[in-house]
TrEMBL record:
Pfam family, one: ECH_1
This protein's name: Enoyl-CoA hydratase/isomerase
Keyword line: Isomerase
UniProt superkingdom: Bacteria
Source organism: Myxococcus stipitatus (strain DSM 14675 / JCM 12634 / Mx s8)
Length: 260
């Protein structure tokens, strides 16, 4: 494991990225955002990595959002603005990475920290975790992560969260579709490992194709989405792993993926 604001460790088929600022509630500083981006790039380039898991150091906070102590920059307004845009680029990078991503929500996920949870494909949280967008209480608005929140819940619930700053319990967040699992703290590692193992056992080429198609189709009108997805299915059936998967099914044996 490498030290720094973000720890990077390969554990079998998974790359574990850990935001490592427990004294600052794992807040998102510019260096954390850059290190997370670098970690995603590194995991994406490593053929041995099949799943990326994101978590926070400690047992209380996954990520409390942006570091308010570093809100103002000393490099000029436009340069500081470009620095803030890097968080939005990070959220987009989670969708662009070829590997499936899982958030291991070990504690509270607030503001930009909730954005990281929503940016991951899947999320498993401990029972005691709170999730929410409390920025309004300090005179700010959850601008960039709001784009992901809008895509996860309906307009009324999204507006209620960003306008009131109220926190959700993990169980309430699960009911809204912000999480996939909620488990006792003692079961968190096992639940994440089981999910990561399941994802690692799939064809990585087909997962990459399917994830890209999912995110592209999400913002298309229905007729355009169906037309686009038809083209992606035609690409899918030409993959070697598609032929292997069908053969394995017909022959009643486990598939041997070549990831191509």
């Amino acid at each position: 494991m490498e030290a720094g604001d973000v720890l990077y460790e390969v554990q079998g088929p998974q790359a574990l990225l850990t935001v490592n600022r427990p004294k600052a509630r794992n807040a998102l500083s510019p260096s954390v955002v850059k290190a997370l981006m670098d970690g995603l790039e590194r995991a994406d380039a490593d053929s041995a990595v099949r799943v990326v898991v994101l978590t926070g150091a400690g047992e209380k906070v996954f990520c409390a959002g942006g570091d308010l102590g570093q809100m103002t920059g000393d490099a000029g307004f436009l340069s500081t603005h470009e620095g803030r845009r890097s968080y939005g680029k990070l959220l987009a990078r989670f969708q662009e990475v070829r590997k499936p991503t899982v958030a291991r929500v070990n504690g509270h996920a607030l503001a930009g920290g909730l954005g990281l949870v929503l940016a991951c494909d899947l999320a498993v949280a401990v029972e005691g975790a709170d999730l929410g967008t409390p920025e309004i209480d300090v005179g700010l608005f959850p601008m960039m992560m709001m784009a992901l929140l809008q895509r996860h819940v309906g307009r009324k619930r999204a507006l209620e969260l960003v306008l009131t700053g109220d926190r959700l319990s993990a169980r309430d967040a699960l009911s809204l579709g912000l999480l996939n699992r909620v488990v006792p703290a003692a079961e968190l590692d096992g639940a994440v490992a089981a999910l990561a193992h399941k994802l690692a056992g799939k064809s990585q080429s087909v997962l990459a194709l399917g994830r890209r198609a999912f995110f592209t189709a999400e913002d298309l009108p229905l007729p355009a989405a169906l037309e686009f997805l038809a083209s992606q299915l035609s690409l899918n059936v030409l993959a070697e792993d598609a032929a292997e998967g069908v053969s394995a099914f017909l022959e009643k044996r486990p598939p041997q993926w070549k990831d191509r």
